[in-house]
Specification:
- It is a single chain.
- This protein is α/β, with parallel strands linked by helices.
- It has a domain of 168 residues: Thiamin diphosphate (ThDP)-binding fold, Pyr/PP domains (Rossmann fold).
- The chain has seven helices and eight strands, in the order αββαβαβαβαβαβαβ.
- The strands form two sheets. Strands 4-3-5-6-8-7 form a six-stranded parallel beta sheet, with helices on both faces. It has a two-stranded antiparallel sheet with strand order 1-2.
- α5 links the parallel β5 and β6.
- It is globular.
- The termini are far apart.
- The N terminus is likely disordered.
- It is an enzyme of class 4 (lyase).
- Its cofactor is a metal cation; thiamine diphosphate.
- Its EC number is 4.1.1.1.
- Homotetramer.
């Protein structure tokens, strides 16, 4: 009994009965700490699905998935910011296979580069994306108690398996995971940090959203990640999503550094013809 370690100290009368180790029978098997990770993960996944039902992130039509502003912030290597001018064409074409969605494309890309476990903390900005990751049979979605733990778990996977991935929510989650991503940057570890971002229709507006610092500016989180990641991709339209996601993942592997991918919460379930099955 661990109480034997404290025998040199006298116990107060109120707690004297604790000196008898027979008062502590072994825990039943149902309370064993040897519960499998897969059982825990299945429980977490069911919680994600229940949480997802509370929020509808669908959009009315495919035409509305383009942000209000055509100036889309896309960031290059180590914080070099560039701007992509998007075309006026529709963001999705007809006759696209139903499973060729942004969320499924990202899940497949993670599998193709060797990711098996994705460490996550759910939030209303990433619930739809988490649904698609859960649906990928070759990915194991591991729920974490906080974002910093998720980041360090992804760090560990990058050390042992060559690449790691974590998924958090907008700003409150991104700023929480930042310390782990900074550590991965200093240790030259390819960690793919995915953040559920604001609705694509909110970009270019003066709306003040929750999970921000109270300003109509969604770039606070992005600016923090620019110095501790080798590539930053802000995906808020479907036309550029394929290119940005693939470039971010391939850059992480090439540079052996973490990358930042922000995906608007209303886009993961929308199909697009560019989401092919070819590897990175």
């Amino acid at each position: 009994s661990i109480l034997n370690l404290y025998k040199p100290f006298s116990l107060p009368p109120l707690f004297s009965h604790l000196d008898d180790s027979s008062q502590f029978p072994p825990l039943p098997k149902t309370h064993s700490l040897s519960v499998s990770l897969s059982t825990y993960t299945k429980h977490q996944n069911s919680l994600f699905r229940r949480q997802r039902k509370k929020m509808d992130t669908r959009i009315g039509s495919l035409d509305t998935c383009r942000p209000a502003s055509n100036d889309i912030c896309c960031n290059g290597t180590n914080g070099n910011v560039s701007t992509l001018q998007t075309s006026s064409s529709h963001c999705a074409a007809p006759f696209t296979p139903a499973d060729a969605t942004l969320g499924r494309h990202l899940a497949k890309r993670l599998v193709q580069v060797g990711v098996t476990d994705v460490f996550s903390v759910p939030g209303d900005f990433n619930l739809t994306l988490l649904d698609h990751l859960i649906d990928e049979p070759e990915l194991n979605l591991v729920g974490c108690c906080n974002e910093l733990n998720a980041g360090y778990a992804a760090d560990g996977c990058a050390r042992s398996r060559g690449v790691g991935a974590c998924v958090v929510t907008f700003t409150v989650g991104g700023l929480s995971v930042l310390n782990a991503i900074a550590g991965a940057y200093s240790e030259n570890l390819p960690v793919i940090c995915i953040v559920g971002g604001p609705n694509s229709n909110d970009y270019g507006t003066n709306r003040v959203l929750h999970h921000t610092i109270g300003l109509p500016d969604f770039s606070q989180e992005l600016r923090c990640f620019q110095t501790v990641t080798c590539f930053q991709a802000v995906v808020n339209n479907l036309d550029d999503a394929h290119e940005l996601i693939d470039t971010a993942i391939s850059t992480a592997l090439k540079e052996s550094k973490p990358v930042y991918i922000s995906i608007s919460c209303n886009l993961p379930a929308i199909p697009h013809p560019t989401f092919s099955s070819e590897p990175v």
